[in-house]
Specification:
Layout: H1 2-18, H2 22-28, H3 34-42, H4 61-74, H5 78-96, H6 100-111, E1 118-120, E2 134-138, E3 141-151, E4 160-166, E5 172-177, E6 184-188, E7 200-210, E8 214-216, H7 220-255, E9 258-259, E10 262-263, H8 268-297, H9 301-327, H10 338-345, H11 355-372
Parallel strand pairs: 1-4, 2-4
Antiparallel strand pairs: 2-3, 3-7, 4-5, 5-8, 6-7, 9-10
The structure holds flavin-adenine dinucleotide (FAD).
Length: 380
């Protein structure tokens, strides 16, 4: 039912407005045009899961997960789905501060698709808990200095949500930095895939912002974890849709081909690869449903969401490799969509947390949960 509803409300927009030009944007590393976000807002897609009080559609998490899967299925430019989640999510976090100035100046225009927001956290070589980007409080605000190495949507962003370490308290705080602020430089970054995301490196050279630009005044890392808890299941949901689309395109591409006098689709080795793909799609979707079940039961969203993102990302990368294997040369040349799918899927190794770090996180959390339980009374 959701598939039909997404097709009815957004199908034409995705096919006619978002999909055309995807190959060229990838080739030229050109970000999606900003009009697309405005149009997505106009048809009710951009803020579909944002609170009604902010002018959004108020869709609940299970509905949004199902919609995201369908959007990523219909949309041949995966970055559109990525960007569709980030800005409304940051807007919701700003709205949660309850501050009228932040809501009017940033959150509402973000939900209307007029301002794109990007999280600027990661720094090359810095430990996550020891950010090199520092903020110093002055009489009339803050001065921020540092460098963020890879910001999704950075070439489109206004504002950046910059996470910086307060030199006085050592706490991580979040600041809204605008690209026009003196001392801000953003530079386009070339990447292997997901190129229409508008990746940027952000330099902050004694950037002065007023006290009103503090969006997160304490425990910024806690805020980032909450952001990722949401972001990870959203990524898992969109990957399910992207995997489905790639699977279908793969089967379509194989249909007319034969080897050894037998259709390729009848070859056991090809069928095995297709079976792996189907299994990866189904298990990833099942984990998204598990996250939704956990949400309804009031369980720890972060842990479930991390498992879902990790699993779906691994399956998406494997699916890309399987497609290239069964397609042969057609999987490797750029005139077919398969090689771009694989390059885009590889972004998931690091996006919203490095896959290996997520494994460590899962292990640590599982042991901690056991220690808290009755099963290991001596651990307490
Ligand atoms: C597509 C994409 C989009 C991104 N978008 C954003 C964005 O919008 N905003 C943003 O701020 N950042 C973004 N990033 C950066 C992302 O957050 C980081 O790449 C990610 O956190 C991993 O950090 P790293 O690249 O420094 O790798 P590292 O953490 O340095 O990992 C490199 C290797 O070191 C290992 N390692 C790391 N820590 C440990 C440890 N404690 N013990 C043992 N081994 C360890 C890892 O397992 C891995 O093998 C993006 C990255 C990508 C690829």
């Amino acid at each position: 039912v959701i598939g039909e509803e997404v097709e009815r409300r957004f199908g034409a927009f995705l096919r006619e407005r978002v999909n055309p030009g995807a190959e060229e944007r990838d080739r030229d590393a050109r970000p999606l045009p900003t009009e697309i976000f405005l149009e997505a807002a106009r048809i009710g897609l951009w803020g579909l899961a944002s609170p009604v009080s902010l002018g959004g559609g108020g869709l609940d998490a299970p509905g949004w997960a199902a919609v995201l899967e369908e959007i990523a299925f219909h949309c041949v430019d995966l970055p559109f789905s990525v960007l569709l989640c980030a800005t409304p999510r940051i807007a919701a976090a700003l709205a949660a501060t309850g501050r009228d100035d932040l809501i009017r100046r940033y959150a509402l225009p973000m939900i209307r698709g007029e301002r794109i927001a990007a999280l600027a956290l990661h720094e090359e070589g810095a430990e996550p808990l020891a950010l090199g980007t520092v903020a110093r409080e002055t009489a009339d605000g803050w001065t921020i200095t540092g460098e963020k190495s890879l910001v999704t949507g950075g070439m489109l962003a206004d504002p950046f949500l910059v996470m910086a370490r307060d030199v006085a308290s050592d706490d991580v705080l979040g600041f809204l930095v605008e690209p026009s602020d003196p001392g801000v430089t953003r530079t386009a970054v070339r990447t292997l895939g997901a190129r229409s995301c508008g990746f940027a490196r952000l330099s902050l050279d004694d950037v002065r912002v007023g006290h009103d630009r503090v969006a997160c005044s304490a425990d910024g890392l806690g805020w980032v974890n909450a952001f990722f808890a949401q972001r990870r299941w959203e990524e898992a949901a969109m990957l399910v849709g992207a995997m489905r689309a790639s699977f279908e395109a793969c089967v379509r591409g194989l249909r007319a081909r034969s080897r050894g006098g037998r259709p390729l689709l009848d070859q056991p080795n090809v069928q095995e690869q297709l079976g792996r793909m189907v299994s990866g799609i189904a298990s990833s979707r099942a984990l998204v449903h598990e996250v939704m079940g956990g949400l309804a039961r009031g369980e720890d969203l972060a842990a479930l969401s991390t498992v879902a993102k990790h699993h779906a990302s691994e399956r998406a990368m494997e699916l890309g490799l399987s497609v290239v294997r069964v397609q042969g040369a057609a999987g490797y040349v750029s005139e077919h969509p398969f090689e771009r799918y694989l390059r885009d899927a590889l972004a998931m190794i690091c996006a919203a947390g490095h896959q290996d770090s997520l494994l460590r996180e899962m292990g640590e959390q599982a042991v901690a949960a056991l220690d808290r339980s009755d099963r290991f009374p001596n651990a307490r």
